[in-house]
Write a structure and sequence with these properties.
Mean pLDDT: 84
Low-confidence stretches: none
Organism: Salpingoeca rosetta (strain ATCC 50818 / BSB-021)
Number of strands: 12
Protein name: Transmembrane 9 superfamily member
Distance between the termini: 86 Å
Shape: elongated
Pfam families: EMP70
Helix content: 40-55%
Number of domains: 3
Largest sheet: 4 strands, mixed
Strand order of the largest sheet: 1-12-10-11
Structural class: alpha+beta
Strand content: 5-15%
Radius of gyration: 30 Å
Subcellular location: Membrane
Number of helices: 14
Family: Belongs to the nonaspanin (TM9SF) (TC 9.A.2) family.
Length: 564
Amino acid sequence: MQRSKTCEPLCRRTYKNTNKKDISKYNKIVMAIRKDYMHHWILDNLPIVECTSNCKGGIRPEDQPYYRLGFPVGCAIGAAEKSLTACTLRNINNMYQNEMFINNHVDIIIRYHESPEFEGARVVGVEVQPRSIRHESPDALDCSPNRPPQPFKLKMPTKDATEEETLDLIFTYGVYFEESDIKWASRWDTYLRSAEGVSIQWFSIINSLVIVLFLSGMLGIILVRTLYKDIARYNQAEDREDAQEEFGWKLIHGDVFRTPTNPLMLSVLVGSGVQFTCMVVITLFFACLGFLSPATRGGLMTAMVTLWVCLGTPSGYVSARMYKMFGGEKWKTNTIMTATFVPGVVFGLFFILNLLLWAEHSSAALPFGTLVVLAVLWFFISVPLTFVGAYFGYKKATLEHPVRKNHIPRQIPPQPLYTRTLPAILMGGILPFGCIFIQLFFILTSIWGHKLYYVFGFLFLVFLILVVTTIESTILLCYFHLCSENYHWWWRAFLTGGASAIYLLIYEIIFYFRQMEVDGKANLFLYLGYSTIASFLFFLMTGTFGFVGCFYFVRRIYAVIKVD
């Protein structure tokens, strides 16, 4: 501790163009440089970072240094090759073209803080400055900034090659200690600084609030002016002779609560949506309070999985009550599907993606033992809790509808374009997605761009706006749907609420091709697989928002009218 080193040798590696193993290893390094692979180190539970902008710092908040997690294996310069990335190494100038360089030297800057309350010093920051240096000999190392860079070139052998070519790589490092005023409790502030996006975050919130106010205004006009007038007119018409000439949403009061097609699957999806929603709400709540700190690596994912497993009870309860309301008799099938369908789809997709990671020998692949542990948690904790919730759900009295159902279903008249299934569902997802797409950009950039995402306060506000927007847009379209005398609203409400997941998946695909500089079919398959899982769970959550809001709305409006 506090002993600096300037140019220490680490290792030496020689690659020969006549050795197949050397060629294979060389090709892997070339691939890593071309695809922007990163080194991720940890020192004293702090991830190492590299400064990317404002490295000299300043007084104003916008002049503070900005860091990214890790540092690249190397870099490449080349205007002709799209696979080559722009070099940002400090000792490489514009004289090089179509060259590839490797970071064979790193200067590690360890910042420490001394306090009279603590004996010794505490590490409060770790920064690296990668460089490419051409070392002539391990006995004459020179790590000065003026040293020329190390081109990473090795001529591949041809069939008639007679000369052997070698590439000598010498890896070195330097360690420097700097005393810092940053206290131990504030050492994560550097990593969590998001000053570059704060103004955009506030713009996102304001944009979302404008959408909410717009929807609320439209909904208010419908409820106050149109709906209340309809109710008053319908109730007054009870004593008139032309009462049978009713039109609009009251005309279908005897069919509006008719059991939908496939009530079993609808109950399963809504129950699973409630489970996922509860998990998201609790996770965001504790994240906003600071309990899910990035200092605990994997804490966020562990909390989400644990909550998902333990929240099987509300899932089973909601699914059972809905299925009983629909008059379903296959209660065992309903409970088993609630406990296994959605987790099975997610686990199956994740297992396939993990197989691909195993095949690619990736360090991101989960060990087989971890998958077994997840399966044990699923079958021995989540499934029994779902049965417990279903038991209490079936014990409850059946939900009574405010109006009686007719024995013979009425014929549905021809529908206008805006109330037909596909156009109405697609329209329902536009405004909710408009509330989240800016925040979604920051989330995807953090996940795939080597940054920490810790603005859970903004995320929680956007989540609340998403809930309100989804419910309001679904109710609005549901009202138009009922006014066109179409009583098939159950599935329509769920699909309309979840339609924003379609735009989410499209946006993720666009983000991949426009923002991510990666290639290879395996990377594309992995990205699309994870995006599909995220979009499916998002569909469950927003579909549940829309269904619950529309269910409450329909019950309320038909409870206040007078019917025979």
